[in-house]
Amino acid sequence: MADFGTDIGAITQQGFTILSGADNLAAALLRRLITPRGGLFYDPTYGFDLREYVGAAVGPQEVYEIEQLAAAECEKDPRVLSATATVLNPDLLAQRSLNLRLEVETDGGPFALILAVDQVRVEVLRA
Question: Considering the entire predicted model, what is its pTM?
C-alpha cells in the first residue's frame, strides 16, 4: 500500500486534525488548487488558484485551460502518477460556481475527488 504521509489538517476551535493516507493527499492537492501561482516564496511554480475563474466569463478555451492547468498542478505532487481534471459545470462559471472532478492515479491506485469552488471557499466531495 502506498504511503501518502501524515500532516496537520484543518485547525478548528477544538484544535487541529491529523490527516493521513488518501485524505492527506487530497488535502495537499486541494491546497495546490487554491494557492495562487508563486504564492509560496520558496516555490514560485507552486499553485493554481481555481477561484480566479469563478465569476469570470469563460468559453470552451478557458474551460480547457482550467482542466489542463489543474491536472498539471496535481501532477507536480510526487505521489501523483497522473491526473485528469474535468469541469462539470462550465455554463455556471459566470454564476460564481465551479465544480471540478479530479481523477488521480497513484501507486496506491486511483481515486477521484470533486471540488466545489466559489469565490470564498472550496469544498471537497470524494466521489
Answer: 0.87
